[in-house]
Amino acid sequence: MAIAKPYADIPGTIIFDADMARIGFHINQFALSLMKAENRERFKADERSYLDEWAMTEDQKQAVLDRDYNKMMSLGGNVYFLAKIFSTDGLSFQVAAASMTGMSQQEYAQMMLDGGRSPDGNRYLHEQKGKI
Amino acid sequence: MAKITAGVTTSHVPAIGAALDNGKSNEEYWKPVFAGYDFSKKWIAEQKPDVVILVYNDHASAFSLDLVPTFALGCGEKYKPADEGWGPRPVPDVFCHQELASHIAQSVITDDFDLTIVNTMDVDHGLTVPLSLMFGQPEAWPCKVIPLAVNVVLFPPPSGQRCYDLGKALRKAVESFDEDLNVQIWGTGGMSHQLQGPRAGLINQEFDNNFLDKFIDDAESLAKIPHLDYVREAGSEGIELVMWLIMRGALNEKVIEKHRFYHVPASNTAVGHLILENK
Ligand SMILES: [Fe+2]
Fold first, then answer.
1. Binary contact (B153, A29; C-beta < 8 A)
2. Contacts of residue A54 in chain B, CB cutoff 8 Å?
3. Based on the structure, what is the number of domains in chain A?
4. Are A82 and B64 within 8 A, CB to CB?
5. What is the pLDDT of residues A61-116, one digit of tens each?
6. What gap in Å lies between CA B204 and CA B192, rounded to an integer?
7. Is B227 known to be catalytic?
8. Is residue A56 domain-resident?
9. pTM: predicted TM-score of the whole model, two decimal places
10. Domain boundaries, chain B
């Protein structure tokens, strides 16, 4: 019997469970390799060939090259692993998070200063109908 | 005899560490965050704990997908700050109280909690930011630290109840250690935050304040909150709050609230901080 995944109806959220960890094994291990300064240098010098050293799918590699974090997560990436990529780029968690929301960096920072994103209307997928 | 005298909970936002390390703690944005810990620094200078059992989670720094332990107790001699992608934080190494750590491992595992023992690992912002918030920027940390890393990265983390019960087993373990030691337990992480996806930036002040209220004298009910509620209400990373329940379980049923602080935002996160002393 399949394991219930009640969290699937939370909008805008991908839960990094065992299935996602299986799909994302290589992209996450690649990201972690960037914790070593010499690997960061090699990656920055030639991203494509560095990525080719990892058994990642072409989609996963392209998502990394595009710095499309939502795509990376939909392909099994986990944000704490992927953090090593945006840290390598010299970007903060807030800049990276903003890029996932479709908001500009300024809009996102202002939303946080104003108390953050309200849970109201953001708890269930069905609440999001009509929204993007 | 060793005794757990007090507990601390605090968020462990990486940007707080970066602000301190880069001399930005006096900037308007960060001032109110650090001000929330002014009392705490004075308090801990008076308390002078010998050992802190520091409950935190590793954020894919020490534990890759090679190995994901649910509860990992640090029993090694020392731990260095991890390089999380921008070089290690310029903070002191952490020295463990190895005799107490191995005593805890033996006691707690005998009590049915199947801990993993870690002798070699680096410790990331989850462990070092709370030390910075409580102790500032000393040359060396003024006490020994026993790291207790909890998996909250790969779903599902341990349940709130399991964490709360582990806290109780930790208290029993500490109280059966012969040496006279002033031991504190810290639970870190949270409060509401989501770092991923289009819903990033979620903050739920009502959930957080209710959690802080009940944490003092109704932690049993908090222990029953299912994972799904944390994720839905407090954001996908808000689930770190289960680690606070380990701290609470390790304290007496009756505690005195010495300090409470709540602030939004630090980067993407609601900062919560409590100091509780055993009655
Ligand atoms: Fe964390």
1. no
2. none
3. 1
4. no
5. 999 999 999 999 999 999 999 999 999 999 988 999 999 999 999 999 999 999 99
6. 6
7. no
8. yes
9. 0.96
10. 3-278
